[in-house]
From TrEMBL:
Keyword Transferase found: no
Keywords: Glycosidase, Hydrolase
Top-level taxon: Bacteria
GO molecular function, one term: beta-glucosidase activity
Pfam families hit by this protein: Glyco_hydro_1
Gene Ontology terms describing biological process: carbohydrate catabolic process
Organism: Enterococcus phoeniculicola ATCC BAA-412
CC annotations in GO: cytosol
Record: active site: E383 (nucleophile)
Signal peptide from the UniProt entry: none
Family: Belongs to the glycosyl hydrolase 1 family.
Source lineage: Bacteria, Bacillati, Bacillota, Bacilli, Lactobacillales
Protein's recorded name: Glycosyl hydrolase
Length: 488
């Protein structure tokens, strides 16, 4: 058998894209509750209130002006408020996951549902909700895999202390971690600290009002310290906890064998590996320190920070893989296409999704091998999936053979990484195992799931759940522990 007998097959979601229940059960608002829907051609927007009291909008990755605060306009549709409503459908959804045979389910805990302001005040009703979710999962023999923080921050911390740019956010986060670690220590074994830590930027994700390099890297340092402290705290509460990090991994190939292009690819890959280096190796790599020196960036540390980073390293690397990209020293001479959170140089050897993402299953094997060769710790693919417009046929079926074909090739690449390259891979959770809101565009029509949810881009629909063709296909994959990849 290619895959270990205890391999964790499952699916992945995020609270702000799936859970809904906005302000239900004592939840406070988070930054992503103030971000609108969008589309491929129309970016998502942040709604905010200026110091002068006017209501303005900027695109989701921009900074807010100093003193601006998040604003929820009752006339505007915000996808996170309902999303696809796991809050009210969790039993139905978990039953469907169990029917597929999931061994695990990756979800995130909404910080603002546990600590409505992000401060040291606990909402018991929020804790009780996740108790019910974890109990339902465990009753169906599904292991919870929990992302502690997935792309948002309680709005109060963004508005009052400028989010992760302020060191006191570390203490508030650690209080949140301690609360959930103690509450769920008998229910959850697998944790990840921050989702796609290399993509954290702007007010929506880390609550900062300045997007300059000094602010972003200082905030990143606070995230690193918080992650290390969370690892050490979690191990004290339950030594059996497995606590990992999570990065968006996008391998970059040189556009040509021209040395300048090879160097450009090296520099691109270094930028994402930097975040892994700190959390796995426990120190800042030399090239990043040299960059700080060149650019005049000064990371303000407290005594003991370096020791914390060294001691609080993670147990495994969780990563998302959707695509590869291409690097060149002459970017003005190439064609750009869509990409995961960024534009990407077009690779002429790859097919692309409807959103322009290069489909590269061999790149997954390359990524697994590169990461394992470099870090020698277990790997966990916690996001991989294919966003597409699904057509509901007249008989109600959804024939998503394109999604099946995508997964077949990527799971085959995983097999080869394990059997030919010796990679220690502990699990695989497909992204958006049930339809949810796209983080990048805010759309519903960009669907990833094995389960269709009746909801459109404007928040209209019955929320009815329907199995797609890929549902039964993935069920067979899991039942055969990855050996049976045929689509019939």
């Amino acid at each position: 058998m290619s895959f270990p007998s205890n391999f964790l097959w499952g699916g992945a979601t995020a609270a702000n894209q799936y859970e809904g229940g906005y302000l239900s059960g004592g939840k406070g608002p988070s930054t992503l509750d103030a971000i609108t829907g969008g589309s491929h051609d129309s970016p998502r927007m942040i709604t905010y209130q200026t110091k002068e009291g006017t209501i303005e909008r900027v695109t989701r990755n921009q900074a807010l002006p100093e003193g601006a605060i998040g604003y929820i306009d009752e006339e505007t549709y915000y996808p996170s408020h309902v999303a696809t409503d796991f809050y009210h459908h969790y039993k139905e959804d978990i039953a469907l996951f169990a029917e597929m045979g999931f061994k695990c389910f990756r979800l995130s805990i909404s910080w603002a549902r546990i600590c409505p302001k992000g401060t040291k005040e606990v909402n018991e009703e929020g804790l009780a909700f996740y108790d019910r979710v974890f109990d339902e999962l465990l009753a169906n023999n599904i292991e919870p895999v929990v992302t502690i923080n997935h792309f948002d921050i309680p709005m109060y911390l963004a508005d009052t202390v400028d989010g992760w740019s302020d060191r006191q956010t570390i203490d508030n986060f650690l209080f949140f971690c301690e609360t959930i670690f103690k509450r769920y220590k008998e229910k959850v074994t697998y944790w990840m600290t921050f989702n796609e830590i290399n993509f954290l930027r702007s007010w929506t994700q880390i609550g900062i009002h300045q997007n300059d390099s000094q602010t972003k890297y200082q905030a990143a340092h606070h995230l690193f310290v918080a992650s290390a402290k969370a690892v050490l705290l979690g191990k004290k509460i339950n030594p059996d906890f497995q606590i990992g990090m999570m990065v968006a991994y996008i391998p970059s190939y040189p556009l040509s064998c021209r040395p300048e292009d090879v160097l450009a690819a090296l520099q691109f890959n270094r930028e994402q590996e930097f975040y892994i280096d700190v959390q796995v190796r426990g120190y800042y790599p030399a090239h990043k320190l040299k960059q700080f020196e060149r650019e005049g960036i000064t990371i303000k540390k407290e005594a003991g920070d370096d020791e914390l980073l060294s001691e609080g390293t993670v147990d495994y690397i969780g990563f998302s893989y959707y695509m590869s990209t291409v690097a060149t020293a002459t970017p003005e001479n190439v064609t750009y296409v869509g990409g995961n959170q960024m534009p990407a140089v077009k690779n002429p050897y790859l097919e692309e999704s409807e959103w322009g993402w290069g489909i590269d299953p061999v790149g997954l094997r390359i990524s697994l091998s590169a990461l394992y060769d470099r870090y020698h710790v277990p790997l966990f693919i916690v996001e991989n999936g294919f966003g597409a417009v699904d057509i509901v046929e007249a008989d109600g079926t959804i024939q998503d053979d394109y999604r099946i074909a995508y997964f077949q090739k990527h799971i085959q690449a995983m097999k080869e990484a394990i059997t030919l390259d010796g990679v220690d891979l502990i699990g695989y959770t497909t992204w958006g195992c049930i339809d949810l809101v796209s983080a990048g565009t805010g759309e519903m029509k960009k669907r990833y799931g094995f389960i269709h949810v009746d909801m459109d881009d404007n928040g209209h629909g019955t929320l009815k759940r329907t199995k797609k063709k890929s549902f039964d296909w993935y069920k067979k994959v899991i039942a055969s522990n990855g050996e049976e990849l045929g689509n019939e």
